Amino acid sequence: MTAAGNQKEGPLTGLRILDMSRILAGPFATQLLGDMGADVIKVERPMVGDDTRRWGPPFVTDRQGQPTDESGYYLSANRNKRSIAVDMACPEGAEVLRNLALTCDVVIHNFKPGGLIKYGLDADRLCAADPKLVYCEISGFGQTGPNSQRPGYDLLAQACGGIMSLTGDPEGPPMKIGVGIADVMCGMYASNAILAAIRHRDRTGEGQKIDISLVDSQIAWLVNAGVDYLISGNTPVRRGNQHPNIVPYQVFEVADGHLIIAVGNDRQFERLCTLLERSDLSSDVRFESNAARLHHRELLIETLEAEVRQWSKNDLLTAMEAASVPGGPISTLAEVFDSDQVAAREMKISMPHALAEGGRVDLIGNPIKFSKSPVSYRRAPPLCGEHTDEVLAEMGSATGGREKLKPETL
Predict the structure, then answer these.
(1) What is the pLDDT of residues 223-267, one digit of tens each?
(2) What is residue 95's three-state secondary structure?
(3) What Å distances lie between residue 7 and 78, 191, 315, CA to CA?
(4) Which has the closest alpha carbon to 226: 177, 165, 273?
(5) Going by C-beta distance under 8 Å and a sequence separation of 6 or more, which residues neighbour residue 200?
(6) What pTM was computed for the model?
(7) Cα distance between residue 345 and residue 128, in whole Å
(8) How far is CA 12 from the centre of its chain?
(9) Buried b vs exposed e over 108-144: b needs ≥16 C-beta within 10 Å?
């Protein structure tokens, strides 16, 4: 799909969002809403911009083959937005943002709790001025509690929220997940909460404040591992690539690499044993049910590993597919983005970009497939302050125009 995407109106067309967030959780949330049609106005520091613009390499390469200040990290979470460069630390800039907020349906930020009071951009002031406003605050630990003033980072959230204690080799150290998943999932929860609050506002006329934290979000997506602990009282151990509740469900080594076998029930286990010519395993009382296989996990996995190592990757995957045994290859990112499946699902997109060599950048597509109001890719991730004049012109007399801003605010 190209930058233009499908030009039908999205489900959030007409919704306006003032995005004072930066890094990943907030920008990821607002990118999702922007893909669905919302008008997202991204506020950035003049001459500096979102911190992630310089979180590289890699950086976008310009037409002369030189790296720009636009990093891949920044590009991953900022399409379908308009960027304005305004210094909220100066009174004129803060006033412009207050006035702009009152033209919006949603305000979102990830400053520390209380960090916007001195600028008059806090929830109490803006929600009092506009009772219909939805005001979303993202923080590391939430607006309340003994840790509320601690800074929030993805790695810290993964550590404090428990997921690192479950991740990694059993004999190795606790391990972070390979992407900023605490930030990403917080952004997902935030976007969902914003949509629910908008629904409530549309029914009742009432706006509201949303308090969402990285650590709360990370604890929430402990899901089955967290509830298993709450029910049993047993602290889970790291199992590497193994599943805590299903066996066999993990990475296996074959003669020429690795693959996944993901047996989800007893019938699938029987079929796996048949294709491995080890039907004796599925009839063994120690392995005939998932509960039994969990109890005898080490013995079963040791036996299966010896059998699977005799197969080539392609041969075993072919046999598993024919026998309806779930599994698959472990793809590199090159294999992922070059695949026919990614092309068919439009999960790799190309958008025009003012600085990029060749005039375009490749991005990851939105996974949501609406039947009536599809997502669209209208704007590439903006340059810092690219739309300041455009947005201020739209505000017009509501803010007094551009002349109210000191030069250093732009």
Answers:
(1) 999 999 999 999 999 999 999 999 999 999 999 999 999 999 999
(2) helix
(3) 19, 22, 45
(4) 165
(5) 206, 208
(6) 0.91
(7) 44
(8) 19
(9) bbbbbbeebeebbbbbeebbeebeebbbbbbbbbbbe
Domains and CATH numbers, the chain: 16-222+338-409 (3.40.50.10540), 249-331 (3.30.1540.10)
Q: How far, in Å, are 101, 170, 217, 256 from residue 259 at the CA level?
A: 51, 20, 31, 10
CA distances from 281 to 251, 274, 299 (A): 19, 9, 11
Sequence-distant (6+) residues with CB within 8 A of 388 are: 83, 84, 85, 86, 410
Amino acid at the residue 136:
C
396: confidence class by pLDDT, cuts 50, 70, 90: confident
Q: What is the tens place of the pLDDT at every residue in 284-310?
A: 999 999 999 999 999 999 999 999 999
Phi, psi of 142 (to 5 degrees): 105, 170
Q: Is the pLDDT of residue 210 over 60?
A: yes
Instruction: Catalogue the active-site residues.
Output: 183
Q: Which residues pair with 364 in a beta bridge?
A: 348
Distance CA 385, CA 402 (A): 13
The whole-number pLDDT of residue 8 equals 73
